[in-house]
Amino acid sequence: MEPQEIREGYLVKKGTLLNSWRAVWVVLSEDGLDYYKKKTDRSPNGMIPLKGATLISPCQDFNKRLLVFKITAEKKQDHFFQASHMEERELWVKDIKRTISCLKDGKRFARKSTRRSIRLPDTVNLAELYALMKDQDDGVKELKLEQDNRVFNHCFTGATVVEWLVSREKARNRPEALMLATGLLNEGFLQPADELSKEGAEGGEQTSFLDQTKALYYFADSGFFCEGYSSDEDVLLKDEFRGNIIKQGCLLKQGHRRKNWKVRKFILRDDPAYMHYCDPSKGDDPLGAVHLRGAVVTAVEYVPDAKKYDIDGNLFEIITSDETHYFLQAATAEERKDWIKAIQAVSKSGK
Question: Where does the pLDDT of residue 119 fall: very low under 50, low under 70, confident under 90, or very high at 90 and above?
Answer without folding.
Answer: low
